[in-house]
Amino acid sequence: MYQPEQPIFDEQPSSNVEIIYNIEDVPKPWWKSIIFALQITLVDFTPFMWAAGFASLAGITEPSFVPTMLCACFFCMGICTFLQTTIGNRLPIVQGSSSALMSSMGNIAAVYGLPAVWGASLVGGAIQALLGATRAISRIRHLLPPVVVGSVVTSIGFVAARIAVQWTFSNTEPIYMVLALIAFIMALVLKFKTKGIISQGFILVTVVIVGVIVSSFLGIFDWEAVYQAPWIEIPRLFPFTDLEGQSGETITFIAAAIIGGFSGYIGAIFESVGDYAATCAACNEVYRVKHIDRGIMASGLGCMITALFGGLPCTSYTQNIGIVAATGVASRRVTQVAGVMFLLYGLCPKLAYVLAGIPKPIIGAVFLISAASIMFSGIDSIVSSPRTLKNTFIAGITLSMAVMLPYHCSSTYADWANSLSPFMNMLCTSPVFIAVICGVTLNILLNIVLKEKE
Fold first, then answer.
1. Please, what's the largest Cα pairwise distance for the chain?
2. What is the pLDDT of residue 337?
3. With contact defined as beta carbons under 8 Å apart, do 191 and 227 qualify?
4. Nearest-CA neighbor of 260 among 121, 435, 115?
5. Alpha helix positions (H), 331-430
6. What is the reported pLDDT for 181?
């Protein structure tokens, strides 16, 4: 019998996060929700990078392409986030453009064109929604004990840390390094030496003061792009049919493209299962069967919508877990308000370019604090498991592979990794995908196949 309220774990993993607003709490007065939501959007604006990355992979040089896709991504982020927090798993999860899916879809666009991308996105989203609706993913939950999920969450923390470090050192000019250091120290001071709304909104306060005000005073904030962007632009269905070099078709369904695209969906599903666990841990919420099924279903439906508007397929965002863990604000209402703001960014390109104009070193320095919260949330889950030699091997080998294999495949063995198929390339370069595969496989081998007879 299906039991949606059944916990995934026999024992809830411990957490050191101090929750200020629980999932169903609504911050009062009303303006607090807006401040907390704005803080979320300041960290979860990576579609700016993924849209540019997709264009590069696809070989598209049309100047209007990236801004148009960026607005579509923000618009769909709002829709998908609202779906997830209402009919989905109802956790404070932001849905946003997926790096794994950006990579696989970019390769499809380069070979088969944009219409094949939208076809692969639609079919992949439909399959993902079906997997959630039929409860196929939650049926394998016994293969995901706390030691495995904790290893996955910890690897997500490493991914977040890598993003934070990359952003922090994206510009190594002295002025940017100094501002990044100032932002990092200010964030720590505001978090631990202040109280109330300032402490809870330390990310927003730091980014506004250092990233906007100080950067503008020093002349390094990119206001030119903001000035040139229009105030209002309504997203339209299939906006790239008239793009030069494309076939002019709206959508095409090509078997090879669908298979290649779904490899990205597999990675996104695995990441989401880990993200749901990390979110529950950060919120002190019991991780239940319904969170997996409803979350995967809503994510699939959202991906189908993004295909219609010319955006990149969406998945759960690791960054937001770090914000919840760092601030203690786990309110679902706040996440819904953030979804509305993402919609507005999609409708008003000027707002989107204000976010994109904040120097990345400043964002990265502050986000490093959030990444640390994610990482140790996963470690808490690992240490809550029975301290057996088998579990030590599972966690140790899984984390070693998840951290070191992508590193070597992006440096020493880059040529070899790039020669692989998109699916195999992702298998070798996605830390979260590697963590899930290694963790589940080792758990089956050590705790099931080689289980000692009682």
1. 71
2. 93
3. no
4. 121
5. 332-347, 349-357, 360-383, 389-409, 414-418, 422-429
6. 93
DSSP-assigned letter for residue 23: T
- Choose between 302 and 146: higher pLDDT: 302
pLDDT above 90: percentage of residues in the chain? 16
Cα 107 to Cα 73, 237, 250, 445, distances in angstroms: 18, 22, 19, 34
Burial of 444 (0-12, 13-18, 19+ CB in 10 A): middle
pTM of structure: 0.70
Residues 394 and 376: their CA atoms lie apart, in Å, by: 17
**Residue 300: its pLDDT value, please?**
94
CA distance 223 to 212: 10
What SS3 state is found at 315? Answer: strand
Residue 245 clears pLDDT 60, i.e. is over it: no
> Which residues are paired to 96 by β-bridges?
315
What is the distance of C-alpha 151 from the center of its chain? 17
Q: Which of 429, 6, 375 is nearest to 437 (CA)?
A: 429
Exposure string of 133-172, with b = 16+ CB inside 10 Å and e = fewer, is eebebbeebeebbbbbbbbbbbbbbbbbbebbeebbeebe
What is the radius of gyration, based on Cα positions, of the chain? 21
Q: What is the pLDDT of residues 327-374, one digit of tens each?
A: 888 899 999 999 999 998 888 878 767 766 788 888 888 878 877 877
More confident position, 222 or 391 = 391
| CB-based contact 203:370 (threshold 8 Å) | yes
Query: What is the DSSP annotation of 191-237?
Result: HHH--HHHHHTHHHHHIIIIIIIIHHHHT-S-HHHHHHS-S-----S
The closest of 264, 354, 326 to 300, measured between CA atoms, is: 264
Separation of alpha carbons 327 and 282, rounded Å: 10
9: left (phi over 0), alpha (psi -120 to 50) or beta: beta
- Note whether 299 and 132 are within 8 A (CB): yes
pLDDT digits over 209-235, tens only?
888 889 888 888 878 778 877 888 888
- Encoding tokens for residue 130? 């079906």
How far does the chain reach from its first CA to its final CA, in angstroms?
28
